[in-house]
């Protein structure tokens, strides 16, 4: 599998919506390669797998010191690296990227191994390909599925992408995964679009609203978008999320 990095940190996103692992310790496995291009992606260095010849892994948690291995990564090496980074307080393994579900068979093999060893599996995905989600949903304990707002300019037919993401959420729910949707918002995000997402998600999954970093949205606008979603989905099903790890200065 083509990876970008493996490290131990705190889950910095998701806020307090049900299914979020915010503030929990996780070991992150970041896959290289992605099928879409969110304008604000903070992992854009890893979006073309062939341009990631090596992956880096922390030699010690929070050390900021890394070692490198050639891609494609071997499954046994990845499992060894994860176990070496285990600080005994790990809530779950976070599979992220790039888009982890593109390397479906490799992801499945790793999720199976980590579950066998006794870890919970947390998957951070753009949900763009429900058929790939179906292959690993049964191995997923926690699923964070991004709804890519129009302003992400992630792909040309953005409405179709949203509908696929909602499809993926349904698959996770049916498989019993604790699932929430995450929506990165900017100052250009439209109220009517948030209302549409909320109607699609209502009764299906809670929504974490996350300002794009660096934050450009005003408090008033953020409250208006939040209010719009909560009026549709109910006050228990919407929460604020922001990338806390960037404020803690950790990966
Ligand atoms: C880098 S992506 C990798 C996993 C998967 N491809 C996805 O998009 O969910 C991980 C998460 O980072 C968040 N993210 C990336 N860049 C961001 C930014 N500039 N501001 C806020 N959130 C960002 C998105 O919410 C995304 O879900
Ligand atoms: N600490 C920390 N929390 C995160 N939550 C989602 C992340 C991601 O890149 O998927 C991420 C990340 O990169 N670091
Ligand atoms: S889907 Fe995730 S990895 Fe891909 S461009 Fe968007 S934020 Fe970045
Ligand atoms: Mg990140």
From TrEMBL:
Family of the protein in this entry: Belongs to the radical SAM superfamily. 7-carboxy-7-deazaguanine synthase family.
Cross-referenced CDD domains: Radical_SAM
Gene it is expressed from: queE
Protein name: 7-carboxy-7-deazaguanine synthase
Pathway given in the UniProt record: Purine metabolism; 7-cyano-7-deazaguanine biosynthesis
Protein role: Catalyzes the complex heterocyclic radical-mediated conversion of 6-carboxy-5,6,7,8-tetrahydropterin (CPH4) to 7-carboxy-7-deazaguanine (CDG), a step common to the biosynthetic pathways of all 7-deazapurine-containing compounds.
Pfam family name, one: Radical_SAM
Binding site for Mg(2+): 43
Subunit structure: Homodimer.
Organism: Palaeococcus pacificus DY20341
Positions bound to [4Fe-4S] cluster: 34, 38, 41
């Amino acid at each position: 599998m083509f990876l970008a990095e493996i490290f131990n940190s705190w889950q910095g996103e998701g806020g307090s919506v049900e299914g979020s692992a915010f503030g929990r310790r996780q070991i992150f496995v970041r896959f290289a390669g992605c099928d879409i291009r969110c304008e604000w992606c903070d992992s854009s260095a890893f979006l073309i797998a062939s341009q990631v010849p090596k992956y880096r892994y922390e030699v010690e948690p929070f050390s900021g010191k890394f070692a490198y291995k050639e891609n494609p990564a071997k499954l046994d090496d990845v499992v060894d690296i994860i176990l070496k980074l285990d600080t005994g307080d790990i809530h779950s393994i976070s599979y992220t990227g790039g888009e982890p579900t593109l390397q479906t068979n490799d992801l499945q093999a790793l999720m199976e191994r980590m579950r066998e060893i006794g870890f919970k599996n947390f998957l951070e995905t753009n949900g763009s390909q429900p058929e790939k989600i179906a292959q690993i949903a049964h191995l997923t304990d926690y699923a964070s599925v991004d709804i890519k707002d129009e302003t992400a300019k992630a792909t040309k037919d953005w409405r179709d992408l949203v509908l696929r993401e909602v499809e993926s959420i349904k698959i996770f729910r049916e498989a019993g995964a604790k699932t929430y949707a995450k929506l990165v918002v900017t100052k250009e995000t439209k109220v009517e679009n948030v209302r549409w997402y909320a109607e699609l998600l209502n009764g299906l999954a809670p929504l974490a609203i996350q300002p794009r970093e660096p934050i450009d949205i005003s408090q008033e606008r953020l409250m208006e978008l939040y209010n719009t979603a909560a009026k549709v989905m109910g006050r228990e099903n919407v929460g604020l999320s922001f990338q806390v790890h960037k404020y803690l200065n950790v990966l």
